[in-house]
Design a protein that fits this description.
The complex is a heterodimer of chains A (293) and B (457). Chain A is mostly helical. Chain A has 13 helices and two strands, in the order H-E-E-H-H-H-H-H-H-H-H-H-H-H-H. Chain B starts with a helix and ends with a helix. The chains are: A mainly alpha (293), B alpha/beta (457).
Chain lengths: 293, 457
């Protein structure tokens, strides 16, 4: 379908607000970062030394950076696969028609409404090694002393679970919407044909949900790579050691604590390329399998 | 019609280009020369009203004391208005001030913590405070270790404001419960460990000790045992380009800490103040922490709090001193002569014994002037509050050597972060101390080399 504008300039004018926003908040900073990634810059930004690709070569030789890549990938796998399966499970259960479930469904989105800082504070207090309620319960049940401050594995697990929980509400809402827009006739027909509930879910519901799943897959991956800074900053601060030093946090440390602008710019460029590639691959690869109606 | 379209597109493009230009403009004022300090002019205190801005990192109860200070100054000086603004943590305040300077909107006065000292010295963006003094203030009035920390070649560069150091806090009730004398705290690490183990064995506490700011405590240990932390006399006789954190001494300290952590005596407590809560909750009897936590700990503790000098390691190490930390007030060179004169008035006011005493009592930071210290002594304050005297006696009893003065490093913020990570890797993740410290030192030296290349450009 094509819309005809009386004036050829009008569409450009109508587009300009979003173009300007994208330019100011995305294109210009990205170009600026790209430029700075070839320089060593002092803290005031008053002195710059051109260093060519040095920031990038250092980056890939930097064990701390490579560690951040591994940690981020582990974290993303947990958040994406753990988060999606948990929320799909919850959505299917919450989709049943019982009295009061409407309220229950509404409550499920609450975690998403919290700001990351508050969510992180809540989790940090619950799991606090010395006075956290949950860490106390874990210790009395299993004997394991859970401490995200002093145990690298605990710290990453803690952060992954908290970040997954934070995203649950968002995922559930989309899955619920997908489930509710499904035509009941399909499921009825399957029942008549003798499919049990297991078969109905995997043969009909799950494939029909694939556009939603695919969308959430991308959103959660982007979330895991880009939007977890606040939680790390408030709880583990990348530690202990570098156990939870996610890519975004490492970038923050180098750029805003170390004020190593050139090096941090190189990291942001790499991060940009990584996520862009990831999205393209996802679209290409998953696009052929997703059932779009 | 066609003409109009071209016009519209052209107008749109023009707007875009303007926007682009506006955004790109402040990016690269490369090689900008800083203004030389206006020496003579600064003394003129005109009758015209002057407004100066003061960015600081003092939140909570400390922020209230700052507000009180600023308000009473403004009342006494009708011609000067100091606008005090809380700009976040130390690191944030420093970053913001530098960014604001870049954008041509710097504050008149900014409070910078000790780690930012070299950065400020090399910034070319400040007016050294000694150039403002026309003999009105005797710099010898400033408590010795504090003055020396912020001086280069004997000249003071910023106005000492809130100074602290590290000391040992301990739980006297636990000492008694374990049958130890609460009035004889440990003086060496071996004694500390023995006391901690006795208390743990008595079932009074789960762990032995923890520390806030571990990388800073390590720096303290270097200075306290008269060990240089970096070359060129800790960066005081020239820009440091090599850290000694991986020296035999560093390896010894970290190996000890690792062993004690393995035995459950050292409880790792994060990089800032997180260790205070478990100490207050009675999880362990000892805490290494900044003196600036004193007021808070005394208020919250439901047990008798004792304080003591930092413990020493056994072995043939020299006598140094604990290092001054905390903040100093820097005057930015964007200030007009009138503003500089006004800032100097404000500096003198903060330094007056009366204000220094109020500041000390309200926060736990050192009184920065010797007169204030004498007045507090006469008043009987330190007998009344012996915990407030501990750190002061500690820094006054130390030796006066380059190593004891504390280290100045370019981009110290990042280096402390690197060392902090190494400490976690050793103490928490069980990595080999020497190897990990070597790696950290290599990283730190790289940072110093980069810094040097920029300063010398």
């Amino acid at each position: 379908m094509q819309t005809h504008f009386p004036n050829k300039a009008l569409p450009y004018i109508l587009l300009s607000p979003s173009v300007i926003v994208v330019l100011i908040f995305f294109v210009i900073p990205s170009v600026d970062s790209l430029y700075l990634s070839f320089f060593r810059v002092n803290m005031l930004g008053t002195k710059q030394i051109f260093v060519g690709m040095q920031n990038f070569t250092r980056l890939f030789k930097d064990t701390a950076y490579l560690n951040s890549v591994v940690v981020s990938v582990k974290f993303a796998i947990f958040v994406v696969f753990g988060g999606l399966s948990a929320s799909l499970g919850i959505a299917v259960v919450a989709n049943q028609r019982y009295r009061g479930f409407g309220v229950y469904r509404t409550l499920l989105i609450w975690p998403y409404a919290l700001s990351p800082a508050i969510a992180a504070l809540i989790w940090g207090l619950m799991m606090d090694p010395s006075f956290g309620v949950v860490s106390h319960i874990i210790q009395s049940l299993t004997g394991i002393r859970f401490s995200y401050l002093t145990n690298g594995f605990h710290a990453l697990l803690f952060l992954s679970v908290a970040a997954t929980w934070k995203m649950l509400g968002y995922n559930i809402i989309f899955f619920l919407a997908g489930l509710q827009s499904m035509q009941p006739e399909l499921l009825e027909a399957a029942s008549i044909d003798g499919a049990n509930s297991w078969q109905r879910f995997w043969r009909i519901v799950f494939p029909l949900l694939s556009p939603t799943t695919f969308f959430l897959f991308i959103m959660n991956t982007l979330y895991a790579f880009f939007q977890v800074f606040g939680m790390v900053h408030i709880t583990t601060e990348g530690g202990p050691g570098r156990a939870t030093d996610l890519l975004v946090f490492k970038l923050y440390r180098d750029g805003f604590i170390g004020m190593n602008t050139g090096f941090a710019s190189a990291q942001s460029i790499v991060l940009l390329i990584m996520v862009a590639t990831l999205t393209i691959v996802q679209f290409r690869y998953a696009g052929s399998r997703v059932v779009y109606r | 019609m066609k003409h109009r379209r071209v016009l519209l597109v052209a107008a749109f493009l023009a707007v875009l280009i303007l926007l682009l230009g506006a955004c790109a403009a402040p990016v690269a004022p490369a090689g900008e020369e800083s203004q030389p300090a206006a020496e003579g002019e600064a003394a003129a205190t005109g009758g015209e009203p002057v407004t100066i801005t003061f960015w600081n990192a003092m939140s909570g109860s400390r922020g209230e004391v700052v507000d009180d200070l600023v308000n009473s100054f403004n009342e006494k000086n009708p011609n000067i208005t100091v606008e005090s603004e809380y700009t976040g943590s130390y690191a944030e305040t420093l970053t913001k001030a530098l960014a604001a300077y870049k954008a041509g909107d710097a504050p008149t006065i900014v409070q910078v913590y000790e780690v930012g000292t070299q950065t400020m010295l090399d910034s070319g963006a400040i007016v050294p405070v000694y150039t403002l003094n026309q003999g009105e203030v005797d710099w010898n009035e400033v408590v010795d270790p504090i003055r020396k920390y912020y001086s280069v070649n004997g000249d003071l560069y910023c106005m000492p404001f809130n100074s602290s150091t590290a000391m040992l806090y301990y739980n006297k009730d636990m000492f008694e419960a374990a049958g130890l004398d609460p009035n004889s705290p440990p003086t060496t690490w071996a004694e500390l460990e023995a006391d901690a183990k006795a208390i743990m064995d008595a079932g009074v506490a789960e762990g032995g000790f923890s520390m806030g700011w571990p990388a800073w405590i390590l720096e303290q240990m270097f200075a306290y045992h008269d060990q240089l932390y970096a070359n060129n006399d800790n960066g005081r006789s020239g820009l440091a380009d090599e850290v000694y954190v991986n020296s035999d001494f560093g390896d010894m300290v970290l190996s000890e800490w690792q062993r004690m952590a393995d035995e459950g005596v050292l409880v790792y407590g994060g990089r800032t103040y997180k260790a205070n809560d478990p100490f207050l909750a009675g999880q362990f009897p000892f805490l290494f922490q900044s003196t600036s936590s004193l007021a808070g700990i005394l208020k919250k503790a439901d047990f008798a709090v004792g304080t003591a000098f930092l413990p020493r390691f056994d072995g043939d190490y020299g006598k140094g001193n604990s290092v001054v930390g905390g903040g100093c007030l820097w005057l930015m060179d964007t200030a007009t002569p009138e503003q500089q004169a006004a800032a100097w008035e404000f500096f003198k006011y903060t330094f007056s014994p009366e204000r220094a005493i109020i500041w000390h009592k309200g926060t736990g930071y050192f009184p920065t002037s010797n007169t204030a210290y004498e007045m507090l002594k006469e008043e009987g304050w330190f007998e009344e509050e012996p915990n407030h005297a501990t750190a002061f006696n500690q820094i006054l009893s130390g030796a006066d050597t380059p190593a004891a003065l504390g280290v100045l490093l370019g981009n110290f913020v990042q280096i402390r972060d690197i060392v902090g990570t190494a400490i976690e890797d050793i103490v928490v993740n069980g990595q080999d101390p020497q190897e990990t410290l070597d790696k950290a030192a290599a990283e730190a030296n790289q940072v110093l080399a980069d810094y040097k290349s920029l300063v010398q450009q």
